[in-house]
Amino acid sequence: MSAPVLWIFLPLALAGLLMLVNNPKVVFLAACLVTLFLTLAAWLLPIDAALTIGGWTFKLVPSIGILGRNLTLTSADRSFLALIYGSTFFWFIPTASLQIARRLIPLGLAITSMLVAAISVEPFLYAALIIEMAVLLSIPLLTTPQHKPTKGVIRFLIFQTLAVPFILFSGWQLAGIGANPGNLALVQQAASLLGLGFAFLLAIFPFYTWIPLLAEEAHPFVVGFLFWMLPTTTLFFGLGFLDRYSWLRDAPSLPAILTTAGALMVISGGLLSTFQRHLGRIMGYATIVEIGFSLLALSLGSQAGLGIFLLLLVPRTLSLGLWALSLSIMREQTAGLSLENVKGMGRIWPFAASGLILANLALAGLPLLAGFPAHQAIWEGLAHGSLPLALWVLVGSLGLFASAARVLAVLFSAPEGTNWGSRETQSQRLLVVVGLMGLLLLGLFPQWALPLWTKLPAIFEHLGQ
Amino acid sequence: MVVLWLMLLLAIITATGLLLSRDWRWSLGLLAGLYLGVFWMVQVHWPITMATVKLVTGWMACAILGIAQINARVEREKDNIWQQGRLFNVFAAAMVLVVSFSLSVSMANWLGLSLLVAWGGLLLICLGLLHLGITSDSFRVVIGLLTVMAGFEVLYSAVESSALVSALLVVVNLGLALAGAYFLNIAQEKTA
């Protein structure tokens, strides 16, 4: 058996099967068991080494050939696989209590396996096409038969599709640079094409307008899943470029470009979040801020920057997951998620309201919460280079703080005498409490994410060394 | 060479026609014609069997969109800009024609293409982008994206002939057409 069959084709086949199953419990259980199995397999099973269990010996071959090219997953990719399938498992768990298991799980599993395929394809440039396929799979997730395709979905489709030509052309240019490294004109062209491609793919300023639109229009949990999965995989894809091409990694202008793009996203996203009147849109702007922080982390230098970038991943999963879960709980029983609709609802949904506020604060980098250690490292790194820039980035984070404070005020400003209660179901309360505990514990003990943090750099041959 | 000129002319007429057309039947007919031009421009660099894939895929995309339109049985919302801006569209298309020609000279040198193929590919990309810029109708957005991808495939065929890329591009094109069909069905269910 080959590793791509286990981590790509098996979940893809299961996703196809689950689309045919009507029972949401069966869909939920099958998907959770398989994603948990794939996470544990990634953590425990060696690739390209014989393994004996009882009297049975088997070996996972790293490669499989398709149409003259290969899908390759080596032992170095195991921690990435564990991260992706572990977080997918984490995202699938609340689907049962939100009653969206049939909607999210089959397509979500297919998207996950496509994104793993994107990271494993050789030559890796073809990943742009596979990511586009994942984007196309996400279209039915973002729209429902009851609603016309919204502006956000259409813009999302356009921007993600426009990324493909730029990245594929840059790949062709990069091959030319390999043969003729001294050609500066070629280097500039390739860098420009690559930059534009990633600006579209990663929703970098000013191409991020679809994020708040989608966050307002689509189901918050589905959107949260995509806001975690797509940028994370795209960032790993981008890091693959830095890892493979030393001229790109060592380009003197790269830190400045990453810093500018990242700072613009953090500042604009943070400040704009303050003025939003829709809870979903605030989550959208927080996602923009987080992508900005990822770019800022990478701008700090290959070794330290990569470490901080990886440190952001687990808190982001937890915060976005909790935020999306809390919004979904509220959305079940309100006309909408605008501030007018949720005024005073904190007294009726105290668990969801707490989850929402704390997730927002964690992504803003509040001390003692999960996001703080990585954000603090980025602020410190930036301050070493430029104190004004660090202050501007802090202003962006303060924007997220302000939006959290505003939402807090709206959620709990009920008329005098309004009774407290809890309309969340038992399972929803449990999930929110587990999420809150996770945010607090990861803030107090960030070293608990260390096993992942130390193993993940192995995926990169040069960046991780 | 004469056939290549004719195919370029076909691409110009069909892509401009897509900008002006108001009837989905005309739009899909023009898109099918556009893929014939694309096929001919791609076969300059690829074996004819591989280039045929582009033609078949394009026509399949047209068929998917056509079937979805027939099933939808609803009149799409009138796009005001579309109704009022025909003259503007003609002028914009003419501008694109000139600009793409001026760019195609350097593009031809850069990619090692013939001028006609470079112009054809660039023209389709630019007209597709123009299409995307002037409409918010989901059906037309998908047609715009398919036009952009068709132009890109013409240019990319000169530098890459991998079977896997060709297969992935087929999936992306059909996926875009299916997304368009899905959007049309959503509109139908809402109306129903």
The Rg value of chain A, from CA coordinates, equals: 22 Å
Summed up, the helix count of chain A is 19
Poorly predicted ranges of chain B? none
- Number-wise, the strands of chain B total 0
Q: Would you tell me the structural class of the helices and strands of chain B?
A: mainly alpha
Oligomer: heterodimer
Largest Cβ-defined interface? A-B, 32 and 34 residues
N- to C-terminal distance of chain A: 30 Å
Number of domains of chain B: 1
The class by helix and strand makeup of chain A works out as mainly alpha
- Work out the strand percent of chain A: under 5%
Q: What is the average of the pLDDT values of chain A?
A: 91
The global form of chain B is globular
Biggest sheet details of chain B = none
SSE sequence of chain A, one letter per element: HHEEEEHHHEHHHHHHHHHHHHHH
β-sheet strand percentage of chain B: under 5%
Largest sheet report of chain A? 3 strands, antiparallel
What is the share of helical residues of chain B? over 70%
Instruction: Give the overall silhouette of chain A.
Output: globular
Give the secondary structure arrangement, pairings included.
The complex is a heterodimer of chains A (465) and B (192).
Chain A: H1 3-20, H2 24-44, E1 50-53, E2 56-59, E3 63-66, E4 69-72, H3 78-92, H4 95-98, H5 101-120, E5 121-122, H6 127-142, H7 151-179, H8 184-201, H9 210-217, H10 220-244, H11 246-249, H12 254-274, H13 279-299, H14 302-332, H15 350-364, H16 372-385, H17 387-411, H18 426-444, H19 450-455
Chain B: H1 2-20, H2 24-42, H3 48-72, H4 80-84, H5 86-111, H6 115-134, H7 138-156, H8 163-191
